[in-house]
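Tokens help. Our protein:
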Amino acid sequence: MRAYMKQYKFLGDYRLRNVFNRLIVSELKAMRCPIVVIPVNESTFQERGFNQVLGLCEGVQPVNCLRTRQGKKRKPPIRKESIAEA
């Protein structure tokens, strides 16, 4: 699964969306509620070439009610720092 996500998300292999698309779309349609997708910022979109979540949800019309802000990307804290803060 880790290799799949790396290939799909970070290496931009858009064809891999078809692996889970049918299952995800079926589940989302069964929920019968609005789907809100977190947008990616412009630099991420340019880097990867597509929005990974929209690819997986292709076939479901999401509600576009969120926008990104301009600014630096936040890096997640190092695991040791996260554990120390908990």
The chain has five helices and no strands. The chain has a mean pLDDT of 85. Residues 17-31 form the longest helix (15 residues). Residues 75 and 81 are 13 Å apart (CA to CA).
